[in-house]
Design a protein that fits this description.
five-stranded antiparallel sheet
């Protein structure tokens, strides 16, 4: 029973972390948060986070100064369908994923259960995840 409780609590605890991300300190694959895009659509990821909340509503994160940039920190980019952030050096430590306005996204943590983020009739939502997390985007329907 203890292992089941721990397995359920760990993903929830990691979303609630409130530290400022330090993407510049992660220089090897697997050293930080990862995103695998298993959907048929691109998904926007960011290699920075600021503030104390674990979510941000809007299309662009305040920490992003380099939009659509694969080769810089404080950046975001569209991760293509079938791609993984761990293959892109500035995204070895991916800090956030955007759930698109008007879309339903199914996703899960490595070894976790499927979550559904329904943004129909709502603004886009960014979610921060911790350095130990691996997030899988399973499907996006708009």
């Amino acid at each position: 029973m203890r292992s089941v409780t721990l397995a359920l609590a760990l993903p929830l605890m990691s979303i609630g972390l409130t530290t400022t991300a330090a993407a510049g300190t992660c220089t090897t694959p697997g050293c930080g948060g990862e995103v695998s895009n298993n959907s048929r659509m691109p998904v926007r990821i960011a290699n920075c986070w600021s503030g104390t909340s674990s979510t941000y509503t809007g299309d662009k994160l305040p920490c992003v100064t380099k939009v659509n940039t694969w080769s810089g920190y404080n950046a975001d980019v569209e991760l293509p369908a079938g791609d993984e952030s761990k293959f892109h050096s500035y995204y070895y430590d991916t800090d956030a994923v955007r759930f698109y306005r008007g879309c339903v996204t199914k996703w899960h943590y490595w070894g976790g259960w499927t979550n559904t983020e329904d943004r129909r009739g709502k603004s886009s939502l960014w979610k921060k995840f911790s350095n130990i997390d691996h997030v899988y985007i399973d499907s996006i329907t708009c």
